[in-house]
C-alpha cells in the first residue's frame, strides 16, 4: 500500500514537472514572439518628399476705395462720382477693357460733430465711400499700372485703399505631377536612410499628402499656407508628402 502511494506521488511530481517545463517553454516562445513583433513594428522610417514649381499668376484683382465727406448729399455724391470717373479713366489709359472694371461697393454714413460736453456742434456730416474693382488676366499690365497709381492722387481721387492680389488659378493642373514627384523624392530619402543603416526599404505603411501652398517665389517656405494669392505675380507652388516605410 505504501509502495503504491509512493509510486503515485512520483508520477504526480513528474507530471507537474513536465507541465511546468511546458509553461516555461511557451512563455519564452510567446515573449520572444512579442519581442520580435515589437522590433519589427519599430523598424520603420518616416520621410518627407517635397515638390516645387515656379509659376506666374494668371489673375489680378485690384480694388480701389475712395470717399468724400461734406454736409450736403448732392455735393458729396457729385465729388465721389467724379472720383469714380477718374479711376475708370486711369484703368482705361492703362489699356484695360470696360468689362474688366466693376463698381463693387458704395456706402453712406452719418456723423454728428460734438463739442467737449457732447452737445451737437455744427451740421451733420455725410460720408459717401465707393470702391471700384479691376479683374483681369493681364497680370503684367496690372503690375505696371499699380506702379503708377500716384496718378490717381493727381487726378483728385482721395484714396482710402488700393489693394492688388495676384492669383494662380491652375493649381489643379499641377497637382498629379507634383504629388508623384514628392512621393518619388520621399522614396529616395527612405532608400538612402536604409542604405546607410544596412537594411532595405520595405512596403509603404502610411502616407500623408499635406497641403499645397502658393506663396511669393522669393518668400519663405510654408508647408501649411493657403493658396488664395499674393502681392506678387511671381509665385511658388509647394507640396510636402510624409510617408512611413517598413525597413527589412
UniProtKB/TrEMBL annotation:
<dbReference type="InterPro" id="IPR016907">
    <property type="entry name" value="UCP029033"/>
</dbReference>
<dbReference type="InterPro" id="IPR052022">
    <property type="entry name" value="26kDa_periplasmic_antigen"/>
</dbReference>
<dbReference type="InterPro" id="IPR007497">
    <property type="entry name" value="SIMPL/DUF541"/>
</dbReference>
<dbReference type="Pfam" id="PF04402">
    <property type="entry name" value="SIMPL"/>
</dbReference>
<protein>
    <submittedName>
        <fullName>SIMPL domain-containing protein</fullName>
    </submittedName>
</protein>
Amino acid at each position: 500500500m505504501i509502495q503504491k502511494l509512493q509510486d503515485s506521488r512520483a508520477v504526480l511530481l513528474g507530471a507537474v514537472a513536465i507541465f511546468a517545463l511546458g509553461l516555461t517553454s511557451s512563455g519564452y516562445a510567446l515573449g520572444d514572439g512579442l519581442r520580435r513583433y515589437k522590433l519589427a513594428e519599430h523598424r520603420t522610417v518616416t520621410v518627407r518628399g517635397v515638390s516645387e514649381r515656379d509659376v506666374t499668376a494668371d489673375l489680378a484683382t485690384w480694388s480701389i476705395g475712395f470717399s468724400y465727406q461734406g454736409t450736403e448729399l448732392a455735393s458729396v455724391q457729385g465729388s465721389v462720382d467724379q472720383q469714380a470717373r477718374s479711376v475708370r479713366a486711369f484703368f482705361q489709359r492703362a489699356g484695360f477693357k470696360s468689362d474688366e472694371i466693376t463698381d463693387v461697393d458704395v456706402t453712406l454714413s452719418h456723423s454728428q460733430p460734438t463739442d467737449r460736453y457732447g452737445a451737437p456742434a455744427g451740421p451733420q456730416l455725410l460720408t459717401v465711400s465707393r470702391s471700384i474693382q479691376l479683374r483681369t488676366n493681364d497680370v503684367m499690365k496690372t503690375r505696371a499700372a499699380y506702379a503708377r497709381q500716384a496718378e490717381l492722387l493727381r487726378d483728385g481721387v482721395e484714396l482710402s485703399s488700393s489693394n492688388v492680389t495676384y492669383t494662380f488659378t491652375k493649381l489643379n493642373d499641377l497637382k498629379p505631377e507634383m504629388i508623384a514627384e514628392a512621393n518619388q523624392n520621399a522614396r529616395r530619402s527612405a532608400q538612402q536612410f536604409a542604405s546607410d543603416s544596412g537594411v532595405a526599404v520595405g512596403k509603404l505603411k502610411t502616407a500623408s499628402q499635406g497641403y499645397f501652398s502658393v506663396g511669393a517665389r522669393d518668400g519663405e517656405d510654408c508647408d501649411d499656407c493657403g493658396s488664395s494669392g499674393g502681392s506678387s505675380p511671381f509665385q511658388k507652388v509647394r507640396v510636402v508628402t510624409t510617408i512611413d516605410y517598413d525597413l527589412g
